[in-house]
Amino acid sequence: MPDRIALRGLTAQGRHGWFAHERENGQEFTVDVVLGVDTRAAAASDDLADTVDYGSLAERVAGVVAGEPVRLVETLAQRIADLCLDDKRVEDVEVTVHKPEAPVPVPFGDVTVTIRRART
Fold first, then answer.
1. What is the model's pTM?
2. Which residue in 31, 15, 41 sits closest to 84, CA to CA?
């Protein structure tokens, strides 16, 4: 079982949503990413080059959220998972996208979509 590197609570503005007003006005999204990574090489070398740089990852994930609009949060989550799996050191990833301003007609706290993907 791989080790875990987690990036939680990353917040960025995006223009994702089913409704035109969501894509026009945008809203805040929060993303949690948990990577399955073997960290033994990094622990032995104490070198950032031997692990996933979570600062760089945060910038790239924020870029996906702020980037090309999609209609479904599921699509956004998949794009983020694909980005994470582009790093060959990442064995699996869990992505949760929070959409706290979703157009839900009754009071609610949060809407989330969580996906899990693994290298095939």
1. 0.95
2. 31
